[in-house]
Amino acid sequence: MSSKRVLPAEWAPQSAVLLTWPHPGTDWAKVMSEVEPVFLAIAKATLRFEHLVISCEYVARLQELGNELNAWAEDNQLPGRVITVPAPANDTWARDHGPITVETEDGPTLIDFKFNAWGGKFNWEKDNALNMHLAGARVFGKHPMQTVDFVLEGGSIESDGEGTLLTTSECLLTPSRNPTMDRTSIEQLLTEMIGAERILWLNHGYLAGDDTDSHIDTLARFCAPDHICYVACPDVADEHYSALAAMEEELQGFCQKDGTPYKLTALPWPDAIFDEDGERLPATYANFLIINGAVLLPIYDVPQDQEAIRILGDIFPDREIIPINCRPLIYQHGSLHCVTMQIPAGVVEV
Questions:
Q1: Which parts of the chain are beta strand (E)?
Q2: In this structure, what are the phi and psi dihedrals at residue 344, rounded to the nearest 5 degrees?
Q3: 195, 285, 290, 313: most buried, per Cβ within 10 A?
Q4: Which of 85, 7, 22 is nearest to 51 (CA)?
């Protein structure tokens, strides 16, 4: 193993985005006609800037998607192309079962951490094996994949690309993930595996309806090495107010390596959205995806969408902000960042 590892920031150059396509064998079965257009919107937005890897266990649909999207990209003279890989999957949350890629002195290495559906909440065996299907299909070329017997989801960590990680104690310290490990041993493993030089732990913050035990990518995100945006709830009557106010106070206390406080930007708080059983759903503007030249921003058909678009435009003035209505996704308790995983430059070649 190379002595020096770095987990790139999401804004670093990318070669592709990974999508695990919904199919009738998943919990999306009854709403395929609503959720597939969201995935197609993400796919087409991505192909404007980079390649796309799509896996699905329904081979006929997978071939159809590949042909359709590649023809569309060619007709529009876009840089991206689609690679399709037949592979079984329990669900579609590529952020959490997809590979995490680190840069080493010997080039990129993909890490296949264990996935157990956020502490055994759902079936996970197919998803946990998916990265090996991708590697076996040579999607990542000759770049090595290292399997690590440690449960870690991509949505649970944020990297500034310079050795600092942002995460939540609620998620990483949950016993149903790695019951034999405490905070110190987890920090040591993250230092060894993904080059963490320091870890900023948030002890507060949550979203109702979230299955992940407070993934950081639903709450707070690095926008630059010196800048963090975060979810803020201005409504004192809202059930989230106290926890998110405490999270905000924690963020205000965090400093960069040189001791300088971070620049902080609060994101809008969308109107509450409920499912048919009255359960509140985890709508969050923090669940955006940064790709080459653009930011894909989840919106929810609520009044705060336009303000979120404006704020993200201010944060990323050199990138196109592409809003995608992700309201259908949150009915399964995730959003745009949750269904995608970026692959750094130089890894996927078409």
A1: 5-6, 14-20, 51-56, 82-86, 100-104, 107-114, 145-151, 157-159, 164-168, 198-202, 220-224, 227-231, 263-267, 289-291, 294-299, 320-325, 340-344
A2: -60, 165
A3: 285
A4: 85
The CATH superfamily holding the domain 5-344 is: L-arginine/glycine Amidinotransferase; Chain A (3.75.10.10)
Instruction: Find out whether 26 and 92 touch, Cβ atoms under 8 Å.
Output: yes
**CA–CA gap between residue 56 and residue 21 (Å, rounded):** 5
Among 346, 350, 349, 340, residue whose Cα is nearest residue 109: 346
Distance between CA atoms of residues 58 and 287, nearest Å: 27
CA 61 and chain centroid, separation = 24
How would you class 217 by CB atoms within 10 Å of its CB: exposed for 0-12, middle for 13-18, buried for 19 or more?
buried
**Both structure tokens of 153:** 């989801």
Rounded CA-CA distance 109/103 in Å is: 6
156: left (phi over 0), alpha (psi -120 to 50) or beta: alpha
> Which tokens sit at 301?
């058909």
CA atoms within 13 A on the CB side of 223: 25
Closest by CA to 42, choosing from 347, 322, 349, 332, is 322
pLDDT digits (tens, 9 = 90+) for 162-195: 999 999 999 999 999 999 999 999 999 999 999 9
Q: What ranges do the domains of the chain cover? A: 5-344
Residues 308/267, Cβ–Cβ less than 8 Å? yes
